[in-house]
Amino acid sequence: MQPHLKRAFIILILVIIGFLFVRSFIVPGSFGQYGWYRGDSVAELRELPVGYAGSASCSDVNCHNSVYTIWVNSSHKTVNCETCHGPSQNHVTDTRTMPTPANDTREFCGMCHFKRTARPADFPQIDPDTHGENLQCTYCHNPHKPWFL
Amino acid sequence: MELSRREFTKFGCKIIIGAAAGTTLIESIATIDAQEATSSKNYDWTKHYWGYIVDTSKCIGCGRCANACKLENHVPFDEPVYRTWVERYRITNEGREEKVTIDSPNGGIDGFTDDIPADEVKKAFYVPKICNHCENPPCVQVCPVGATYETEDGVVLVDYNYCIGCRYCIQGCPYGARYFNTEKGTADKCTWCYHRITKGLLPACVQACPVGARKFGDLKDPESEINKILDKERINVLKPDLGTKPKVYYVGLDREVR
Amino acid sequence: MAIENLIWGYIYPNEAEIQWSILIVLYPYITGLVAGAFIASSLYHVFGKQEIKPVARFALLTALAFLLVATMPLLTHLGHPERGIEIMFTPHLTSAMSGFGYIYSFYLIIVLLEIWLSFREDIVKNALKFKGWKKLMYSSLALFSYDISEKSLHDDEKFARKLAIIGIPSAAFLHGYVGFIFGGIKANPWWSTPLMPIIFLMSAIVSGIALLILLYLTASWLRKKAINYKTLFSLAHYLWIFLILDVALEMLEIISMKYESLEEIEIIDRLLSDKIATTFYGVQLTLGIFVPFVLLILVMVMKNREKLKTLMVAVSAILVVIGVFAMRWNVVIGGQEISKSLSGTMTYVPVFFSQEGVLPAMIILILPFIILTVLTFILPPWKDMDAEME
Description:
B: alpha+beta, Alpha-Beta Plaits, three-stranded antiparallel β-sheet
């Protein structure tokens, strides 16, 4: 092989070796641990903080047990505490941090209960124009224990 | 009214008594709960294979799921990006033709208002949508660097510290379930709340649903509720012809839903 | 414009934002020009077409100039440009995109070697002729080996030919794979077709030849040299042949889509009749293919009248270069303007000043011409052009 070609190939091989050398440093150690991805990322994603604590964490006797008992026997039992009250893990971890108060406007109750064509017909719905004279729903209804059923 | 006020007073007293008894007690209880709810140390991903069921006939379109998802996962509220959303389908007659109107204003988070008179609507229903966590995920296939992957327990995740932000996966997803996170500069998507399910909690959307239209469970557990439903009901998935094998199963899916 | 006015029908809520901007239109456009210019040069280097010889080395320099900027639109577009190298460190081989780093590097090496070997005689002569930093530059380029005996140059030529033989499939692969990036996306009915790689390849060759014609005419005009009509009309002839292949494939795709009329036909119809009607029927097909096609036929049948024919070739080449850009636009942007729900469309509104705006796109598109000018000062390819004329 001619000398200039030989030199060109030596340069090429050096570049490739350099690339492999740098690669061995930069690719994260856990890459390929489980598959073609960074294994550590699984743990990172598992450890993300939780926002919604779940209704069970409200039920403690020292906490909201009485209202929990009322709610759990009501027809609203399928509606979890945090669906209206918002995420409460911070409050559960440290009771001094207060969650934002539940939205008790007509519009908020209406998200489920205003009459809409696409809602299943057997779902309890009211016509907001004729029902309740624009009063706050909680004026007549207890959200923890609605009247019917 | 009377009842609720009485309850409230009782409840309030309890808090005061509790506070008087000393915050240490409450704190100790709270710490136990918090520990239970924040540990995924004992989670074994070989023992689970997660699945999701949406019963479209139950959905009332309240959008609490999409709202809870954004809160739980810190998805920006002021950007048009959603890990889960609710679609509304309304079928009306237009001459002899059927007309399908589909919408999902702000992913359904603000609820829906009727802008077509009820008597003109022939058929209407809501369809919650979410990442299908496909068994054969096209998004994972097209990722050039291995920054998105399917876990052993069947969840498709994004590695935010490795994603280069090329957005090929967003193009590859047939369901529009992925979005670009401008804050992180990476692709982003539903994780089925991987940080929750590995701690024994339900995904935030499932927990937030007031009517049980969303179900989540373990396909490896023969006694799980979702397996019971899968055995009993007639099930469909979205875009089955694409061969993606979704693990979000739909009960009562209409032919208009894509 | 409010976002609502840009949307028709129903799109998935996450689709309101168009993800791949004008920069991603540039990327296949630029790699296409690279592949096309390289294949044009191999008409001489591999297939021995003597009439192409005057522009063969110039074509190689053109390929290199565009190849050097090919990565720029991609890197500028990434959410994390600093992580871009992962595509070479941990390429996920099921992804069409993962091949980019390696295919690109391999091709860059081939083009560099090819240029080096075909210019080596000049490099060595300059190294011996000049003094000071110029001597150092040319000596380094020669790798301090100065053998330009008849035998050595002959061996170089043989080796360069072998390289070019590998070069053609790798040029085809470089661009074919870009087509597959789009063609392999089953989620998008406007992209998903096995014809995509070969359509991309044909339009790449077409655009590369047209660009070479334009650059050759410009260079001759700037250097005030006479045009070699044999070379020019021969390039025009090849341009015409590849235009036929290109249009046949593009039509085949549209016709079979229409004929089969699958689920997605309604939204494709809407895309073609509303969203990209002008850029598709007007620019890509009429201006970009039909007009140059007719002009080039006229060039081939007309006798004498070289000035007029040159003008017609020049106009054809300009139209083809614009038409192929429109084709890239219609694929990349058009494909994203239809919702994957197949029930609606959105609109791409280019921004001028932004990371992914028109300004960086313009800079990236002007850059190769500057690089090419610099390259022609270091390695002047004009000797071949002028040799035939004397």
